[in-house]
Amino acid sequence: SIHVFVNMATAEIQFARKLASNDLETRQKAEKELKKWLSVKATKGMEEMELRRLWKGLFASMFMSDKPLVQEQLADDLSALLQLFPKYEQGMLFCRIFFDTMVTEWKRIDSLRLNKFYMFIRRFIQQSFTYLHAQGWPESAVRQLMEAITCHHEKCPGV
Question: If 12 and its partner were Cys, which of 57, 83, 99, 119 is the partner (CB 3.0–4.6 Å)?
Answer without folding.
Answer: 57
